[in-house]
């Protein structure tokens, strides 16, 4: 992309049309069963404009207008930055303008405002940017009118923060927007203008930019990958919280209780505690409580000397062995670090004696199930595929989009262990250099998950597995077309017209939908028209 030169367009110029947003919509998912909405790997929420109005009122009353404005600007800036990173992931190979247009399009998709570009000029290499946009239906104008009534000064603070954060990520240097007309002050619509932040101090609401490191420009290498460099892979908040606790407690001698569903990684994390402890050079001994007898327990206590002992499934320890373990713990003459794991909440149910829970559960760490941290699925998948390729001594050809979607949509009752098993099975089934497909992972018999996506018409619909040309839905379509005796020419024309309409008349975007170059499409389109 870095060969693209300066971009200049204004007024009714065709170049300012926003491209088709189907690629952005595809990443917005609703999962009511899990109480989650995600945009790519970001968790989102639907917030009432009335609630924003209440927040605004409180902020202004508590902090005054200037501070409230700065807080809301900062909040919008963070959203804009996050969407800027997301846009790079989704449209990283599109033209610079289409990449930039993802900002206005995501802002509209998130229900904040409808954006019409009036003038856009940028030259990424020289750091030049000038943009002017008209805003319709600003949610913030509504919130402000609701909480404060008509305004003397522009009020779209959060939206201005968003536009600035997004464009700053896009340009790789601080760009600051100003609202030059606002509907809350009586203008017909809001209008904003953006320019690079000069050498002078930033406007007061953008004070944070003075200390904020500038992001890298879009031509640079991709955004840094989330955490997959250590033994415990994951970037989700729940996992990071658990990991932070591991790092804090590892150096202490305190017993640690790992809690979570089967296969979430309790043993894996217990190992990390051991490896980071003063006993790392000693043994790490694991016993399954359900299969343990007196001799087994005594033997494990002896073997773990100088290292750590993990009693897995503490909830399944027989009452007799619970007494014995308690006794061993209280004696304190076993030179070892106590670790335990449980699949059930030990504070409820009376499965384990309170005295034992109080001792071994002194420092609990809970690991969320994989379906509540779907952001980690791509990372784990990448790591497991690499591991399998190495173990089998084979080259694996990545995963298809259908497989990827199926993996993201699946609920994983067996958690990370289940994902690992599916990847291991697929790696054996798939041919050399062939991408892993849905069937390799799921064998085609999985129940569809209760997740929803936004259809282009704006309604939520159940996610259907992505089809490839060989999928059954396509066979039905072909049958129906053949029944109607639709000729190839007529089909081609219908397909081209459909793509051009869906892309809002933008031939470059329509060409992408059809897998053609723009000149190829222009040629066929002329043929269709003539
Ligand atoms: N965050 C992670 N990063 C890398 N691998 C992981 C992670 N979490 C789990 N695994 C892998 O997933 C598998 C299951 O993890 P583990 O055995 O730790 O689960 P568990 O919660 O102890 O399960 P159980 O309750 O059945 O004992 C293991 O192969 C482990 O290495």
TrEMBL record:
SUPFAM superfamilies linked: Homeodomain-like, Ligand-binding domain in the NO signalling and Golgi transport, P-loop containing nucleoside triphosphate hydrolases
Pfam hit, one: Sigma54_activ_2
Domain of life: Bacteria
Protein name: Regulatory protein, Fis family
Region (Disordered), start-end ranges: 202-228
GO BP field: regulation of DNA-templated transcription
UniProt keyword annotation of DNA repair present: no
Keyword annotations of the record: ATP-binding, Nucleotide-binding, Transcription, Transcription regulation
Domain Sigma-54 factor interaction: 232-428
UniProt-listed InterPro entries: AAA_lid_NorR, Homeodomain-like_sf, HTH_Fis, NO_sig/Golgi_transp_ligand-bd, P-loop_NTPase, Sigma_54_int, V4R, XylR_N
Record has Nucleotide-binding as a keyword: yes
Entry GO MF terms: ATP binding; sequence-specific DNA binding
First and last residue of the signal peptide: none
